[in-house]
Amino acid sequence: MLCLDIFGISDPNGPMIYKGTYHLFYQYNPTGAVPGNIVWAHSTSKDLINWTPHPPALSRDTPHDVNGCWSGSATLLPSGEPILVYTGVNTENQQVQNLAIPKNPSDPNLIDWIKPQYNPVIAPTQQNMINATSFRDPTTAWLGRDGLWRLIVGNKIGQNGRMLMFMSRDFVHWFQSKNPLYSRRDTGMWECPDLYPVSTGGEGGAETSAVGRGVKHVLKASMNDGFFDTYAIGSYDDGKDVFVPERGSLRLDSRMRYDHGKFYASKTFFDGSVKRRVLWGWINESTDAATDISKGWSGLQAIPRKIWLHKSGKQLVQWPVKEIEKLREGRVIFPTKELKGGSVLEISGVTASQADVEISFEIPTLEKAEEMDTSLTDPQAICSYGAGKGGVGPFGLLVLASKDLQEYTAVYFRVFRAKTRYVVIMCSDQSRSSLSLDYDKPTYGAFVDVDPVKEKLSLRTLIDHSIVECFGGDGKACITARVYPSVAIDGGAHLFAFNNGTYDIKISKLAAWSMKAAQIN
Ligand code: DQQ
């Protein structure tokens, strides 16, 4: 499926749609499989799924980026033309912000980019006292009602994470706003910030400069100290130029994560062609550098996800873009079925190494759910008990599994009874994912905000050889994992539904598809 998997790649940069063509740039090491010598690689697509590679758009060829063309964003100007703002690491190893403009705006593929002589446009100076080694990853700019462009740049002072805001009338001359847009103590460096409006009235996306009625704002940071992407929902006060969170805040212990597994340095863009906001994220390897070097590549981009505000207003929801369904073939549908406690059911008829699986469960015996240990507030800790015998659950899927179940990755739900409600936890357990290769095999966990009394428990899983992307509760909780099976590969891979709970449950929906390969780099 969608892996832009050549040499070492990481952060998605500057996603946009221009003249009907989707563009993705990404951090790329043209000389090796591990991070280093970073340039902006560039690919284009008509459908977000099949991609055509182009030569790097930004290379390390000026004094302002000779030590790396680091992350940044694209902004579409009112004329419709794009402009890139990115972090260059200069001759002094300082992080400065540079512009790049298309050489030929009539080319929908935007192959050639010009770096104007006046770069850098924002830099650490003796006056602004900005820490020059923690000043990076400019956002897409938005146009204020006062006619000024604004963007934010990630920063820290001491251990306090900050989003510094800069303003400009002409996109060339920038000045710093009096206060950071947002800051928080003891959070470490905030990389790859993102600020965007979400509609309060449905799944449709809002254009990046939208403010006022009908939208809330999302602020996201990639936490360098924890290696996860966390967000807060709130309002952007465009008079004071501050972000005021109403739910969540950017913290190291935050539960408000885009994805509770591997997903970092992400970035959204507004897809005006169908009025949606699309999220891109980097999935790194779980293997060590030596393994990556012998394999010859590392890192990939997750399937792009549509992202919107849940109708509760309390959290975001994500779902693979609908275009991914073009790769589906050979649908297998199972009739409604009881899954007895302690049973395993093979889902045959699909290519289990590359599949899209949608399954929903109903639980007839909820009142017998185990009591929640209220001292356990971390779902990952609960998931680390493993997928062994439980009360209501664990139930879910064994993916990339060997026939004899010696090797598998378990993605599953467990339901607990708390004082006034049921608590649903989703886990992705990689501890049994490979018989031979030694790598980081964590177990990830997330709370899923669904009421199993009224709602079915749904799980969508995209499986692609070494990548398992799970969307629980119709996209309320997402977990992405990297696994490297040794037996459950290609034709040796199998797919099972399982219920290790004591009580029987019902599979109310089960549809699975083999997935064709996309055209990738
Ligand atoms: N990756 C880039 C930085 C960014 C980091 C360097 C996040 O700009 O902060 O490759 O993964």
Automatic annotation (TrEMBL):
One of its GO terms (biological process) is carbohydrate metabolic process. GO terms for molecular function: hydrolase activity, hydrolyzing O-glycosyl compounds. The keyword Hydrolase applies. CDD domains: GH32_Fruct1-like (cd18624). Gene3D superfamilies: Exo-inulinase, domain 1 (2.60.120.560), Glycosyl hydrolase domain, family 43 (2.115.10.20). Keywords: Glycosidase, Hydrolase. Residues 9-320 form the Glycosyl hydrolase family 32 N-terminal domain. Belongs to the glycosyl hydrolase 32 family. This is Beta-fructofuranosidase. It comes from Salvia splendens. The lineage of its organism: Eukaryota, Viridiplantae, Streptophyta, Embryophyta, Tracheophyta.
